[in-house]
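Structure record:
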Amino acid sequence: MERSKVLQCLSALAHEARLDLVRLLVPRGDEGLAAGEIARALGLTASRLSFHLAALEQAGLIRSRKQSRHVFYSADLEGIGGAISYLLADCCMDHPEVLACCGASARHALHLVAEGEAGACAIPPSDPITPSES
């Protein structure tokens, strides 16, 4: 992944509502959620949600698909994995102490993503998502 793309990913994730949105979508896999379901789950207005969805989609962290009159969003696990992999490998140079902080399951998932198994990062969040004020 190119440096400029990683910076765009990190910038998109640097907001509470967008981070909550990614955490909500990752465990849902390719099926994802409809925009209305996301808005209700996160307590966001339609306009605010649209703003956050656009930032994440532009960064390559989520995908959208239209089905009938609804738009469904899902996490782009390859994009998420690419950004994390860049941080670990290129920025942190696979430093053992940094990798140790990631935990065995995360390191295993990153290894699988690096080998092209995009679905490998579907690790559920450790704590529940609470609606943000954004």
